[in-house]
Amino acid sequence: MSEKKLGVLIHGAGRISTQYIKAFHANPNTKIVAISSRRIESCKLRADEAGLKDVELYTDYEEALKHDDIDIVAVCTPQHLHGDNTIASAEAGKHIIIEKPVAISLNELKSMRNAVQKAKVKTIVGFVLRWNPLFVTLKAMIADNAFGNIYHVEVDYQNYINSWWSGYEAVRRKETGVSASLVGGIHAIDALRWFAGRGQYEPAKPIEVFAYKGGFRKGKTQAYVRNANTWQDGAKPLEYEAFEIGLVKFDNGILGKFSTNSECIMPYSFPIEIFGDKGSVKDNRIWSHKYPGQKGWIEIPTIMPDSGDVKHHPFQGEVDHFVDCILNDKESHCNLEDAVLTHEIAFAALMCYETKEPIKLPLLSKCK
User: Fold this and answer.
1) Going along 63-126, which residue ranges are E strands?
2) What is the pLDDT of residue 317?
3) What is the pLDDT of residue 71?
4) Does residue 311 lie within any of the structural domains?
5) Within 10 A of 291 (CB to CB), how many other CB atoms are there?
6) Same domain as 135, residue 56
7) Does 1 map to a domain?
């Protein structure tokens, strides 16, 4: 194995980039060599925060990709830019971390996959919760048959998204945000696939989706201010429904339910329920045949997926895993090819709202 460190380009200088910078800076096999964004001031701020001295700053992404010694690109831009950014990175022969959601349309998703396959580069998608300690523990228990044959999984994303998020202006619009499940709920959809997979590193394959949309927030200019527990007028409205609920049938027979609730008047929450013929899970509470004589729920004392703050999420685990995949020439369980299946569920939900019928998967094969 070469002693040369893998060079990293951080593209996009928003809040998510701070965590990738921190994680790559801590990995012994990588070095951040460049940061690119629309404004040079943003690039400089991120470099200064992290104490990066020997790093080039760019406002031109194409020029940044030509920088010497770049092996990995971390695409941290707003979601409607991920497609073009990923395709350009693949065509430049770079391995790519793609923040979620990776695409805002099925055609864009197909173009990204085609570019990555042609370039034969490694990818990983930012479903960082797969490295959350509770997720890791539950997947190990599922693989160890702690809950027997799982037949149903439920995962919900509950987070009032508003102007507190610097990216809100882009995601609130239908053209660039597309749907609540694509913006934030995609985490719940991916977690649903993750827990419905029977192996420790195996996500389940969806074959059918049916969904509803609802809620009252769409188009409203009055918004909830969570930190102050009050409402304010004059807010820029969401251009799509803030609540979605869907059912998913997987090829292994497991049935799943997801919901995205971006108008809930409450703190952030990410509930998880798993049901098998020999045990059950409610968040970090366990009931299992593995514990004979169990008289009450066993609580796992671990880090929960209970905050929307990016600093709370295990980016180090995601980055370390991806670097290991590159160095050992193996594919991640969380690569773009796998993420296609997660995103297809969100796009199938949108199709279901129009057809009022269950949507069969896969979908990309139907794209022109």
Assistant:
1) 72-75, 95-98, 123-125
2) 98
3) 98
4) no
5) 12
6) no
7) no
Mean pLDDT on 7-36: 97
User: HSE of 340 in the Cβ direction (CA atoms, 13 Å)?
Assistant: 21
Q: What is the DSSP letter of 163?
A: T
Note the pLDDT of residue 365. 83
User: Does residue 152 lie within any of the structural domains?
Assistant: yes
Expressed as residue numbers, the domain containing 39 is 6-128+316-334
Q: Are residues 88 and 136 in the same domain?
A: no
- Residue 342's Cα: distance from chain center in Å? 9
The token pair at 360 is 């069969």
Q: What CATH number is given to the structural domain containing 54?
A: 3.40.50.720
Tell me, yes or no, whether 187 and 71 share the same domain. Answer: no
Q: Which two tokens stand for residue 77?
A: 């831009």
Burial pattern 175-211, b for ≥16 Cβ within 10 A else e, equals ebbbbbbbbbbbbbbbbbbbbbbbeeebbbebebbbb
144 and 105 both lie in a single domain: no
Nearest to 11 by CA among 20, 22, 23, 2: 20
Pick from 169, 154, 89: nearest CA to 124: 89
Q: Per the structure, how many domains does the chain have?
A: 2
pLDDT of residue 269: 98
Q: Report pLDDT for 1.
A: 41
**DSSP H helical ranges for 254-296:** none
What pLDDT, in 10s, does the model give residues 177-208? Answer: 999 999 999 999 999 999 999 999 999 999 99
Please check whether residues 197 and 69 belong to one and the same domain.
no
Q: How many residues does the chain have?
A: 368
The answer to whether residues 103 and 140 belong to one domain is: no
State pLDDT tens for residues 115-160: 999 999 999 999 999 999 999 999 999 999 999 999 999 999 999 9
Residue predicted with more confidence, 13 or 167? 13
With beta carbons less than 8 A apart as the criterion, state whether 260 and 180 touch: yes
Based on the fold, state whether residues 255 and 120 are members of the same structural domain. Answer: no
Note the pTM of the prediction, 2 decimals.
0.97
Residue type, 171: V
The residues that bridge with 245 in the sheet, in sequence order, are 212, 259
Distance CA 64, CA 56 (A): 9
Q: What was the pLDDT predicted at 23?
A: 98
